Amino acid sequence: MTSNAGQKPEIEFPDGPAPDELVITDLVVGDGPEAVAGANVEVHYVGVEYDTGEEFDSSWNRGESIEFPLRGLIQGWQDGIPGMKVGGRRQLVVPPALAYGPAGGGHRLSGKTLIFVIDLLATR
Fold it and tell me: In which family does this protein belong, per the annotation (predicted)?
């Protein structure tokens, strides 16, 4: 895992079984304002599937950050971003129940445990 905020992270393939609960790991602790539940956040992120290591989404690949309200996101982000400070980088390992639901749920990522590395750029 590269942990330099400001550069696209590379996520190492995890060992062992996927966790059943949200796992939050601060890779870089920011020193700016703290995100709170329900805030709007501006982030850069990359997401990979836990089982395959395959990247399924990345704001870095689009060349621009994205801003959105936390309440509109998957539960793993709603639970995993509050408490993070601007300038920080956090890894979230999100089980299906907190992501896109069980297999067969209609989303291409249903039933999958997901890993996100998120750089918090701003909170409003």
Answer: Belongs to the FKBP-type PPIase family.
Q: Is residue 18 in some structural domain?
A: no
Task: Say how many domains are in the chain.
Answer: 1
DSSP conformation class of 79: H
Nearest to 24 by CA among 70, 65, 84, 102: 84
Distance, in Å, from the CA atom of 112 to the CA atom of 52, rounded to the nearest integer, reads 10
Domain presence at residue 16: no
pLDDT tens, 50-74? 999 999 999 999 999 999 999 989 9
Give pTM, 2 decimals.
0.93
What secondary structure letter does DSSP report for 101?
-
**19-32 burial, b if ≥16 CB within 10 A, otherwise e?**
eeebbbeebbebee
